[in-house]
UniProtKB/TrEMBL annotation:
Protein's name according to its UniProt entry: Resolvase/invertase-type recombinase catalytic domain-containing protein
Species annotation: Hymenobacter tibetensis
Domain Resolvase/invertase-type recombinase catalytic: residue ranges: 1-35
InterPro entries registered for this protein in UniProt: Resolv_N
Source organism, top-level taxon: Bacteria
Keywords, comma-separated and alphabetical: Plasmid
Length: 66
């Protein structure tokens, strides 16, 4: 494949990546405007990262597993 063809393919790929990003951001904004919670409240804990690796979920939620 010659250099020009590669340049064209890379340009098209970059344009598509930007379009996907724009569509995703617009979709998330619309969903948020309808009142949908975009985050997972379970992710906001005081448990250190890696604590729940292979553990029981009750222990990971701050139970008596420590």
């Amino acid at each position: 494949m010659n250099e020009f063809a590669i340049h064209v393919l890379v340009s098209v790929a970059m344009k598509e990546a930007k379009a996907i990003s724009t569509r995703t951001k617009e979709s998330l904004a619309a969903k948020k405007a309808r009142g949908f919670m975009l985050s997972n409240p379970e992710n906001f804990t005081d448990t250190p990262p890696g604590h729940c690796m292979g553990g029981v979920k009750a222990e990971c939620a701050g139970g008596s597993g420590q």
